[in-house]
Design a protein that fits this description.
Number of strands of chain A: 9
Oligomer: heterotetramer
Largest interface: A-C, 35 and 35 residues
Number of helices of chain A: 3
Structural class of chain A: alpha+beta
Largest sheet of chain A: 5 strands, antiparallel
Number of strands of chain B: 5
Low-confidence stretches of chain B: none
CATH superfamily of chain A: Molybdopterin biosynthesis MoaE subunit
Helix content of chain A: 25-40%
Shape of chain A: elongated
Mean pLDDT of chain A: 95
Radius of gyration of chain B: 11 Å
CATH class of chain A: Alpha Beta
Distance between the termini of chain A: 25 Å
Largest sheet of chain B: 5 strands, mixed
Strand content of chain B: 25-35%
CATH class of chain B: Alpha Beta
Helix content of chain B: 10-25%
Radius of gyration of chain A: 16 Å
Number of domains of chain A: 1
Strand order of the largest sheet of chain B: 2-1-5-3-4
Shape of chain B: globular
CATH superfamily of chain B: Beta-grasp domain
Mean pLDDT of chain B: 97
Number of helices of chain B: 2
């Protein structure tokens, strides 16, 4: 299992390919992946940029804990979680979650579980900068289930 | 030994500072930390609390050496 | 929407990256991806190779239909389906499904719907060649939900 | 004009051939096609049928020019 917090650009597919190379081919039959990307609109406004704040130390621990919970709940070969912090712009990837398993049900469910848990428990906060120059904290997540 | 108090995101703006150290004397729980640091201002609704980087309730015990953080609902992912 | 049937190696991440470049960055917030890979074991036996047979014409139509059903059911920016045919070996990718949406719930659910529909309706058949040299038709799929 | 009959996977092995053409005379439905082609051998349980590349029931009408396919449960993905 790997957890990455990145202050530089997150390249989800490269990160995924690199990580998957460490797995034995043939052991997993299913890979479920989610990538969250910054949109250029939110709540009816055009967004210019966003700052992702986190709680150094606690954020990593929460992501580790969430990944371990998934591994206890489903038979997984591996889990990868990567999340951006700092200044980002529309189109930039924010989060990558991948789960490898022998079977697709476990991979799908674990990937989604990790995303929902991350959204509700991992200490990250988004501050949007609108096209108007106004800054605002994003107040909550859209429901995912 | 003191208590380390951290504020994140909108709570940092509310508190007017990102962190502070506090004498542990007379502090029993996380809510005591907030009350002393914020001079009695009520906790904004929805505020989350972590003690030593684990989520905790407002009445979670706090002693010297602990790190206590206050922050709004999380919005990552 | 794109549907690919490939007699040559399926490179899922390259295919995904290439396809995603055709989408406007900032319009989608969520990408859900599933990749199915050939395992080196099945029902207790070591597998040497596999042949994926399909029904030329009908297979493409079924995949198109499944993709369109997903687009009617969820608000999706795009859908990508790619599937191998022919001779493959353990570790080779078999199938790639990707769904792009503004929101993660739609992306997750559409991706999973497409995989389950593909498994139950798209005319593909797997014939395994065991390490012993014996050949056998795979008789059914493991349940995915 | 004739009917095109296709067999896939284990049904191809069962039929002993991948395809054949059949005179449409006297054929009303997909099951008629199977019976004539396979000389009365029963349809293996679980056999799927497609008429003109769409799933169809055994009593689905078939006329000249149609393509009728027989195959076992699918196992892709």
């Amino acid at each position: 299992m790997a957890v990455h917090l990145l202050a530089e650009a997150l390249e989800p597919w490269e990160t995924l390919i690199r990580h998957q190379q460490s797995l034995a081919a043939g052991c997993f039959g299913a890979t479920a992946v989610f990538v969250g990307t910054m949109r250029d609109f939110n709540e009816g406004d055009d967004i210019q940029a966003m700052t992702l704040e986190h709680y150094p130390g606690m954020t990593e621990r929460q992501l580790e804990t969430i990944g371990q919970e998934a591994r206890r709940q489903w038979p997984l070969e591996d889990v990868l979680i990567a999340h951006r912090v700092g200044r980002i712009h529309p189109g930039d990837p924010i989060v990558l979650v991948a789960a490898w398993s022998a079977h697709r049900q476990a991979a799908f469910e674990a990937c989604r579980f990790i995303m929902e848990a991350l959204k509700s428990r991992a200490p990250f906060w988004k501050q949007e900068r609108l096209q108007s120059g106004q800054q605002r904290w994003v107040s909550g997540n859209t429901p995912g289930m | 030994m003191t208590i380390t108090v951290l504020y994140f995101a909108s709570l940092r703006e509310f508190a007017g500072r990102p962190r502070e150290d506090m004498d542990a004397e007379g502090i029993r729980c996380a809510l005591d930390v907030w009350r002393r640091a914020q001079e009695g201002r009520p906790l904004p609704p929805g505020t989350l609390i972590a003690v030593n980087q684990e989520y905790a309730a407002a009445d979670h015990p706090v002693r010297e050496g602990d790190e206590v953080a206050f922050f709004p609902p999380v919005t990552g992912g």
